[in-house]
Amino acid sequence: xxxxxxxxxxxxxxxxxxxxxxxxxxxxxxxxxLPTITAYKAKVLQEAVFKVLPGSTQLQRLVxxxxxxxxxxxxxxxxxxxxxxxxxxxxxxxxxIPGSGPGFQDTIRLLYGYQPKQRRVVGMEILESRETxxxxxxxxxxxxxxxxxxxxxxxxxxxxxKRGAKAAPNEVDAITGATISSKAVVRIINQTNQQWLQRx
Length: 200
What we know:
By secondary structure, this protein is of the alpha+beta class. It has one domain. It is built from 4 helices and 9 strands. The strands form 2 sheets. A 7-stranded antiparallel β-sheet has the order 2-1-3-4-5-6-7. Strand 4 and strand 5 (107-115) form a beta hairpin. The protein is elongated and about 90 Å long.
């Protein structure tokens, strides 16, 4: 007895159904996990704010509107923001400023603390990076590099120097073997400073 092969219409319908079912499963999983992912990202960002602004216990999201910084609960689409950090008495400690730009591999997203009275960066945290493992990822794994940003003057502009050559308060010792990533972090902070420092 000869078994007939399924027709092309049946094959296309089966393949279409499988594709539709797979798509629905992917969308359902994405929608189900989105609130958890969003909450986790918000928690990580909040922890980073307190880390880059030592002494802060409260934070407030601020946007620049009508020539001044305005506290907001929600940020409008395309609107850029900073965090104002205050101590327990409500005194301003400084601002946590997000920045991003190209690294060696992909976009680097970071957050750094800034104290306007002292005109200095007081902490830096990498939020997202896909830099080369073992080299470029040292921008957040190398404690010595990260400590460059604990009391870093923004005047004159921040510059990267060869490791061990740091002699001025505005200089950052680059990571040997990852100078492109090191310079990318400094470039992102300098570009973000040009946008925000005049507003404080």
